[in-house]
Write a structure and sequence with these properties.
163 residues, mainly alpha, 0% strand
Length: 163
């Protein structure tokens, strides 16, 4: 149970999200044969999606409130600018295909992309809540498949070399 909580909490960390939780799950599986990867994937996906409604409804307001505060202002400004830049890029590239662009933005596992940034960008672009959550969930599923495949191939190669 401790290992499942571990990957759950990793998947909730901004900028790490499931891109860090899935490799951690594979590492745990390599050391604990009773660890179930399918269960871990479900827990990781839930952990990655759990903050999305909070981010959508409150993050923009909190960031705007805190951007001029002495201690936290720099970080809050950075986060707000990151979300605005991501939103502008999505809007420019997508036009009317914003749903698919948001899904791909979240789903392609690159640094700075993911559920947190995608949800913040959608909030800044005033996308409706249902479309945002559906696009982010689909993106998380896509990223999970890509990262899982990379980890499975990497772990298989490691086992083949080590044997």
């Amino acid at each position: 149970m401790k290992n499942y909580l571990y990957v759950f909490f990793i998947s909730m960390v901004p900028l790490i999200e499931l891109r860090g939780a899935i490799p951690a799950a594979y590492f745990i599986k390599a050391n604990d044969p009773t660890f179930n990867l399918l269960t871990a994937y479900i827990i990781i996906a839930i952990g990655n999606m759990l903050p999305m409604p909070i981010i959508y409804f409150f993050a923009r307001k909190v960031l705007e409130w805190g951007k001029d505060k002495p201690v936290i202002g720099g970080f809050f400004t950075f986060c707000l600018e990151k979300g605005e830049k991501g939103g502008q890029k999505l809007q420019e590239k997508a036009g009317r295909g914003l749903f698919v662009a948001l899904m791909l933005f979240v789903g392609i596992p690159l640094p700075g992309t993911g559920g947190w940034t995608g949800t913040l960008a959608a909030s800044i672009l005033d996308m409706d809540f249902k479309s945002t959550i559906l696009a982010v969930v689909c993106g998380i599923a896509l990223a999970g498949c890509i990262i899982g495949l990379v980890c499975a191939l990497g772990l298989g190669a490691y086992i083949g070399v080590a044997a």
